[in-house]
From TrEMBL:
PROSITE patterns: RIESKE (PS51296). Keywords: 2Fe-2S, Dioxygenase, Iron, Iron-sulfur, Metal-binding, Oxidoreductase. GO terms for molecular function: 2 iron, 2 sulfur cluster binding; dioxygenase activity; iron ion binding. Belongs to the bacterial ring-hydroxylating dioxygenase alpha subunit family. The lineage of its organism: Bacteria, Pseudomonadati, Pseudomonadota, Betaproteobacteria, Burkholderiales. Residues 56-171 form the Rieske domain. This is Aromatic ring-hydroxylating dioxygenase subunit alpha. CDD domains: RHO_alpha_C_ahdA1c-like (cd08880). It holds the Pfam family Ring_hydroxyl_A. InterPro entries: AhdA1c-like_alpha_C, Rieske_2Fe-2S, Rieske_2Fe-2S_sf, Ring_hydroxy_dOase_asu_C_dom, Rng_hydr_dOase-A.
Length: 423
């Protein structure tokens, strides 16, 4: 296909802008044009079509705000929002944007409040987002104030549609978005219900980092079992994720979601091992507990799902975690891990969940490789915006696979992406 993608502008020698036509490569979803990682107009359209559109976005875990008045500041794309627990125990998700001039009313990531007051002009809102009062609303000494026909009830904070699935909280800006369950589809919803089976959750901690790459690069990274069997010495050496392990890769939701699963088979040498150049058979850990999970509900099945646009969840060893991608600009995204357990975990399991969390995060045994590679990839595509990535490992289709050396989930995503973006 050679569909017209978009126009962007560059300056001519005389200083006048020249329209440049962007066209997707003729090969279709087996190619990714580098400019999708750098173009400002593309980025802004993504924020509107995906994050502010008919999608469900990860907000947080119910255990992060256990008491009335507890709040968590969060982001849906570039839009700040607030998750807050009401006095009756219900959870609201509100726009973090004063109805007056648009300032963030909540500046802290977490805390406890009775209500919300904008620091700029002190407009005050209750935990449902209703405007309660305005200083000097009636003026001072008979002068000024708001017009007589101004109504507080017409100027509250927008309340988002919200869903609670097993203690995980999701929200959408779109009143006409499908239900959360329909949006997930059966395959992804099964993964949600495995990770959040209705047991009470306990918060173990967070890690966050700013990665100088486009947000879609992290999405691709979590849809790419191929790299994980080559790049990550820790994974392939200790058998936590290997090309010669039983696996499943399923594009779902038309390609926007995905399920990626592997089965932990421990340290081994097979006919595939020689091609894993970073495999270290000479490397042993004195503390084998770091790579020896205790058997639990997943029965050695690791991985999880990507719920578009910006959340991944699953189990790694005994570490349960949510990954949330927050786009900051065309060339930057924030990555936040939230680690959790179950209230009925015994002391040993809680210790293992915390210990195995060291695989992930900014300095994790595994994740540290990813953030460095994404940084280097962004540098490469930025320098060559007219280049294209080749996404043909495992074929040129978007059918599910039972093997690791494939880029089928990335192809499935870009098949969906092109249609959704009108490219």
């Amino acid at each position: 296909m050679t569909d017209l993608c978009n126009h962007h502008h560059t300056a001519s020698a005389a200083g006048a802008p020249i329209a440049v036509q962007r066209r997707w490569p003729e090969e279709g979803f087996t190619r990714i044009p580098h400019w999708v990682y750098t173009d400002e107009a593309i980025f802004q359209k993504e924020m509107n079509v995906f994050f502010a559109g008919k999608t469900w976005n990860y907000i947080g875990l119910e255990c992060e705000i256990p008491e009335p008045g507890n709040f968590k500041r969060q982001w849906i794309g570039t839009r700040p929002i607030i998750m807050v627990r009401k006095k009756n125990g219900d959870i609201n998700v509100l726009e973090n944007r004063c109805a007056h001039r648009g300032a963030q009313i909540c500046w802290k990531n977490t805390g406890t409040v009775q209500d919300f007051t904008c620091p700029y002009h002190q407009w005050n809102y209750d935990l449902d987002g209703n405007l309660q009062g305005i200083p000097f609303g009636r003026g001072v000494m008979g002068k000024g104030g708001m017009p007589k026909d101004f109504s507080n009830k017409d100027h509250g904070l927008k309340k988002l549609r919200c869903a609670n699935r097993g203690g995980s909280i999701w929200a959408t800006f779109a009143d006409d978005a499908p239900s959360f369950e329909d949006y997930c589809g059966s395959e992804v919803l099964a993964e949600v219900d495995q990770m959040f089976p209705g047991k009470k959750l306990t918060l173990l901690g967070h890690s966050r980092q700013l990665i100088p790459s486009n947000w879609k690069m992290y999405l691709e990274n979590l849809k790419d079992p191929y790299h994980a069997t080559l790049l990550h010495t820790f994974y392939i050496t200790f058998g936590l994720w290997r090309a010669d392990s039983k696996s499943e890769n399923m594009p779902t939701g038309g390609g926007k979601h995905s399920v990626m699963i592997s089965h932990n088979e421990g340290k081994k040498v097979t006919e595939a091992t020689p091609e894993m150049s970073r495999f270290r058979n000479d490397l042993e850990l004195l503390d084998k507990e770091s790579v020896t999970p205790r058997r639990e509900f997943n029965r050695g099945r690791v991985g999880g799902a990507w719920l578009f646009p910006a959340a991944a969840f699953g189990i790694q060893a005994n570490s349960l975690k949510m990954r949330h991608v927050i786009p900051r600009s065309p060339t930057e995204h924030e990555l936040v891990f939230t680690y959790y357990g179950f209230e009925d975990d015994d002391e040993e399991m809680q210790r293992l969940r915390l210990k195995h969390a060291n695989l992930l995060g900014p300095a994790g045994f595994v994740s540290i490789d990813d953030s460095e590679m994404l940084t280097q990839t962004q540098m490469g595509v930025t320098g060559y915006p007219e280049g294209n990535a080749i996404i043909e490992m495992g074929g040129k289709d978007t059918e599910p696979t039972d093997y690791m050396v494939t880029e089928v989930l990335i192809r499935g995503f870009y098949k969906y992406y092109r249609e959704a973006m009108g490219l």
